Amino acid sequence: MFVEAIERVDPFVRPILSIVRRYGSSEVIPACSTMFFVNEQACAITCKHVAEQLLNSDTIHQNYIRFQGERRSIARDKNHTRRLEELEQKYNLRQESIIRIKNQFVNSVDQIAEITYHFHPTQDLAVIQFKGYHQIKYNSCAVFLRDSSKIKQGRSLCRLGYPFPEFTNYRYNPELDDIEWTNDGRSNTPRFPIDGIVTRLRAENGEVVGVEMSTPGLRGQSGGPLFDTNGVIYGMQSSTRHLHLGFDIEDQNVTVNGRQTRVSNYPFLNVGQCVHVDIIKKFLRDLRITYYEE
């Protein structure tokens, strides 16, 4: 049903590849998110929570650099353990704390001198503007739904994004005590569509702001487009909500592989939450950013 639509949408949807390191660990954790371009001036939209992480990457790194500087100054302190604990508390560092994030914008523009972020005041929506490029590397732009009254319960729609980080072009460099991108390994990651039907429209203060889908948005699809069979954009994947169904099973006997076992189960329905197309278009108009409708 969505074969041709995916081929129409794919040329302007791009992955954001990230590598992450936690405090006290040399493990490199890969992650993905999604954005899509709305015009030929290198303007893309994604989720606010995605853009905030991109914007905060340098702040996180600078915090760790300052910590490292003070840690070196206490290396020979006779109360080193206590002083280190004090520094960790000062810089809010625990075992699970993120100390480094590096990002790549794959096949977006040829070079980046500056990135400007615009955050929606209330919704999980942001605009990314790339500056200082000579050539764009995406091949078309999003076309948004003009008449949003077409978004009704039961309509089949699809989302496209990059939920599975299968790229491998990264490593931990022990000499620099840092994570880094490499020229070896796989530098891309597969796109992944997921369809569903519209279940409800979400409103705030009398204004429709979101579209609920019968299937979840997968991690990494955040910031990806919601579209119909013609590839027209109806919204943007934002999050997944977990609805408790109430069909709970408490310590019940069941037969599994021919053997009796006791199980408990608390089922939930995972539904996708998408930012409504009208919210996206109004935000772009407020920013005086060109976009297209159909």
From TrEMBL:
One of its GO terms (biological process) is proteolysis. Keywords: Hydrolase, Protease. GO terms for molecular function: peptidase activity. It comes from the Bacteria. The keyword Cell membrane does not apply. Pfam families: Trypsin_2. This is Serine protease.
